[in-house]
Amino acid sequence: MAKAHFGLIGLGVMGENLVLNAERNGFSSVVYNRTYSKTEHFLNGIGEGKAISGAIDLKDFVNQLERPRRILMMVKAGSATDAVIQQISQYLEEDDLLIDGGNSLFSDTERRVAELESKSFGYIGMGVSGGAKGALEGPSMMPGGTKSSYTAIESLLTKMAAQVEDGPCVTYIGPGGSGHFVKTVHNGIEYGIEQILSESYDLMKRVCGMNCDQISEVFGMWNQTEELSSYLVEITEKCLQEKDPDDGTDLVEKIMDKAGQKGTGLWTVISALQLGASVPTIYASLNARVMSSMKAQRENAEIVFGPPHSSYFDLGSQSDGMPPLMDAVVLSTIASYAQGMDLLMLASREYNYDLHMPSIAQIWKGGCIIRSTLLTRIQEAFLSKPDLPNLIVDPWFTDQIKQRLPGLAKVVSVSADAGIPVPCFSSTLDYINSYKTARLPQNLVQAMRDCFGSHTYERTDRIGSFHTEWEH
Ligand code: 6PG
């Protein structure tokens, strides 16, 4: 029997769809899952009639693959991934290639690349974005590891990936754990945009008194604009239209207001703090999830403090797309991308990833969760100025900020008056206002540090390090 071109371990929904994608693109496949009943279920169900076979154990799996073997693992990040690597390593031979397509912590991937490449088979840590549908129809993929390992799977990945006007949504990211690092930051941006859209929904509901259908229409309008046309705005429009089949009311309003998280947003913020990147909009979105999970405490506190006073504020007419609110959403979305890109540039220098920023923007234009028309502008910004210090000083983005800052400020002030939390909007306002302020008040922080701890300070008028006896 002819050997299969491609192997997949882990038949979760992402794994199932990725192997169907590979097979559709001409790569006969073999699948393995820890519980064989799941493999059977897949082969007798959506995998039926395809050039896909099942393996009973890892030895059988490896034997069914042509050499050099190309194996994609779609298993839970962390110890489950280490366990699979350990079990399969004994069967792998020179030039075989193991790819981790899960949301692994990038430092775990660094360690695995170093350990496994010394065993002479290749290892790629690859971020995969796009959810179940993306995995089947074409995801965005962020593979990192040694370049020769990537070259060995390039033809497979370029066929499987989403395609946009300037090519497939996959590229070699860089060495070590860079692929998973870029995916982590992608998710940090994803957290930011999800929270931004949720804040705008909350304001339309509670400040403007709009219902889900009306709010959905606004998202539909925003999705027609160059600044906001994106996958996340598109699905927000749809989520708000969905009705509870039991009683026909808005389903979104029945969902518990506690957001889950699997780690990538947290890792983005931890990395940013470690590398000295300023990511307040992304951090605010992470903190908003943490706060949302404190449901019982929030309920008690609302009894103590009373609900926010209900007040009506004008956030622009619905038929015009609520201009100030759109300003807030556009600038906060830009800030999320700007902060994520800034973090990537810092990481690239610190970890020698040699990231190519225009290519990262390019592979995010299709297939992934944060795909948007704005990414074309981001790609162009980094193409025209590879050493751009921050997206917001690119002329197109600067222009957006100049036009839309008053709208964002109005939204933050209205929210403060109404007692409605808008952590991403307010963090974005402070981020932009701080970034464009040549002189901040940290001179006084320096004075205090020197006063109580002799930490010294620099001066604006002389070179050197200074200390003053402040308390006479
Ligand atoms: C993607 C997503 C995906 C992620 C989920 C859940 O790009 O397809 O980022 O990989 O796992 O969105 O993430 P949280 O549970 O942390 O929100």
What can you tell me about this protein's structure?
- The chain is α/β, with parallel strands linked by helices.
- The protein folds into three domains: 171 residues, 3-Layer(aba) Sandwich (Rossmann fold), CATH 3.40.50; 253 residues, N-(1-d-carboxylethyl)-l-norvaline Dehydrogenase, domain 2; 33 residues, Single alpha-helices involved in coiled-coils or other helix-helix interfaces.
- 54% of the residues lie in helices and 8% in strands.
- The chain has 19 helices and nine strands.
- Bound molecules: 6-phosphogluconic acid.
- The site of 6-phosphogluconic acid (6PG) has 13 residues, from α8 and α11.
Tags for this model:
single chain, 472 residues, alpha/beta, Rossmann fold, N-(1-d-carboxylethyl)-l-norvaline Dehydrogenase, domain 2, Single alpha-helices involved in coiled-coils or other helix-helix interfaces, 3 domains, two-stranded antiparallel sheet, 8% strand, binds 6-phosphogluconic acid
Question: Helix and strand layout, with pairings?
Answer:
Layout: E1 6-9, H1 13-24, E2 29-32, H2 36-44, E3 52-54, H3 58-63, E4 70-73, H4 79-89, E5 97-100, H5 106-117, E6 122-129, H6 131-137, E7 140-145, H7 147-160, E8 163-164, E9 167-168, H8 178-206, H9 212-222, H10 231-241, H11 264-275, H12 280-293, H13 295-305, H14 323-351, H15 357-363, H16 374-384, H17 395-418, H18 423-435, H19 442-453
Parallel strand pairs: 1-2, 1-4, 2-3, 4-5, 5-6
Antiparallel strand pairs: 6-7, 8-9
Helix pairs in contact: 1-6, 5-8, 8-11, 8-12, 8-14, 9-10, 11-14, 12-18, 14-17, 14-18, 15-16, 17-18
The protein binds 6-phosphogluconic acid.
